[in-house]
Amino acid sequence: MRVPLSWLREYVDVAADATPEDVLASLVTVGFEEEDIHRFEISGPVVVGQVLSFEEEPQKNGKTIRWCQVDVGEANGGVRGIVCGASNFAVGDKIVATLPGSVLPGPFPIAARKTYGHVSDGMIASARELGLGDEHDGILVLSEIGVDAPVGADAIALLHLDDVAVEINVTPDRGYAFSLRGVAREYSHATGASFRDPAERDFAELQPGSGFPIAIDDANPIRGRVGASEFVARVVRGVDPSRPTPPWMIARLALAGMRSLGVLIDITNYVMLELGNPIHGYDLDRLQGGITVRRATAGERMTTLDGQERALHVDDLLITDDSGPIGLAGVMGGGTTEMSASTRNVLIEAAIFDQVSIARTARRHKLPSEASKRFERGVDPLIPFAAARRVADLMVELAGGELTDEGGALFAEVLIEGIALPAGFVQGFVGVDYTDGEVVGALETIGAEVTPTDAGWQVIPPSWRPDLTDKWTLVEEVARIHGLDRIPSELPVPPSGRGYTPLQQGRKRVADALAAAGLVETPAFPFTSEEQNDLHGSASGEHLPSIRLANPLDGQAGYLRRSLIPGLLQTAHRNIARGLTDLAIFETGVVFAPQAGVEYGTDFIPPSGERPSDETLAALNASIPAQPRHVAVLLTGNITPRQPGRTAEPAGLADALDAIRVIGAAAGAEIDVAQTQRAALHPGRGGVLRALGEEIGYVGELHPQVSADADLPGRAVVAELDLDRLLTLAGERVVAESLSTFPAATQDVSLVVGVEVPAADVRDAVAAGAGDLLESVRLVDDYRGEGLGEGQKSLTFALRFRAADRTLTAAEATEAKIAGVAVATERFGASIRD
Questions:
Q1: Cβ count within 10 A of residue 766
Q2: pTM: predicted TM-score of the whole model, two decimal places
Q3: 2-40+164-191 has CATH 2.60.40.790 classification
């Protein structure tokens, strides 16, 4: 918020010698952040001049210049010759002459210089060159802006170009400070200076009259709140939109960051900045019938003041007349009823709109405005009557209009709930021994009504402070008013925690292990396309339900991911494009897995400051899809670079399986692999991953077309696992048992089974039959060829047996092996290979 100091002084006593830095320092003490200081960057001799004569001189370039004789006053050198390219002035007009030695915004220093065959002893300035606006239709003629002054007078002071503004950052909860009224009140709190409320008026004179039909028809309120709670209309007739906006208003608007757009619009903007209530003016003669505030209907469209035709959403709140929509309520008006140079009669609107409705509409249409910025933060519900009358008075004063008895108003009674503030609560929470008088005084200073009770006080916040909702926000006000420097700088002793949960420990182990194995962690944004979700989220590539973002950062990535692989593919593409072709990367992160037919989302927001109940937490959890944490790996390029005496080794499926083994070891679970088919993988080069018999992920080489679509040269292998499920299946990690001091007995066995039988299943059968003496079983060979029947394979397992209390005999080991073979024979028809 930019605050011109001349404007601030109208409502609060600011010391005459107070600098902008002093004002900012005072506002910082009541919780604002200082941003900047804004000035008209203009200095030097800038004076009122009068054109005595001029000669028009056509130039070879087709341009006609005027060689002018300008009287700038005896004190400034009398008559000076000045070259001017504008033609919108006449002899006798008073203008702004910038003389040699002055500096205009830019910076643009002025000096006597030879041009077009003359020595121009200064420059005749336009409004844009003075920093008063963007228009450049010619030079600034003082009579056209209603200003008269003696020749030679200081034009900087005359046009209020010596004013200065301070800029503060207003946090979202303090919307009342988006007005001079709010900032002046806060400056009064900071310094104790006398505050004069610009909205303080006799209520009788604020009555809007009658005769103009207004209706609020909100059949679709958001979160049960009607879109408009108050709507005030006043009528001013006979305005003259060609009248100039006075320089003091133009200067203040410019310092506040707004350009002058004509006296009628300038007045509405000025009052919005002054009182904090956005105002809209309609050309009354272009309205058709009365005004109705309602929600948009499906398929409805309208053109806003920026010239854009907009498709409306059914939640958009509209201002309509008999012709249809004429404005996006609280955001931007429509083009059909805007005030223009032909406007003679004005309908003034001052309203209170629902914060959530306005915020959603502004974001939905990507249309932030000064009005929406204020409405979505909350506007004082008692201000519209005063704001509408203030605009009407200024239109009468500056635009020559006449305030009529026409108008209307719809409003609801403003009920502000009291807040119970227990005695001693403020002191105990802040750690400062405030007296009861200091607590009550601070709350009354900000405008609250404080009533003593047996337990403390009942506090009714002022109407302009919707952010004060509980006793904790009242504590903040007391601390802020009495100075944050009174709060002791003591670090609290944190309670002892219980450390990471088992799942968190497991995730950290897995990530650390992969990093130690040489892979690089590359977190990615969780956004992707629906097609990528279908391809990588399912085995066959069928369509899966996905969560669509309401306002995506990228229109081509408008869904939350179901898989980590699309993010790794994007990371790999970026690195390869920059010359990094040998990649071994991984990511751990959540994926979003909604169920088909389930409606997610809720408008319910639990109150802050208290722990939600178990039922509330369950309802909130049910409103969001499952979000398991996965781990994914991608390898491409060479796993080992070319070296003297050794060729480069490209990354392959074996390296991905090594990464799987690293994950399994860190998680504390053995992961088995069985061949499978997936739409995103090369046929015959993919495997399903299982832990304790449950499918937890997949591994394989990407299909060549998938790699090509991702702009990856050559082969790429990937793996993805449900990390949370893997860690749950692994359970608590057991402490390693003591090593046996007895020797092991080793034997091998080769079993012939069908090629369709997974080796892991045969291994599990052998282990189940061999019993407790079997210490380990490991697949060492998979043979398919001569000597075997068609459709058969030979699996060779290395068995190691050991007893905890004795040395095993060869017979005991053989007996255990034969028992294992028997179970494999029973389950899969396995036979010992000759």
A1: 26
A2: 0.65
A3: no
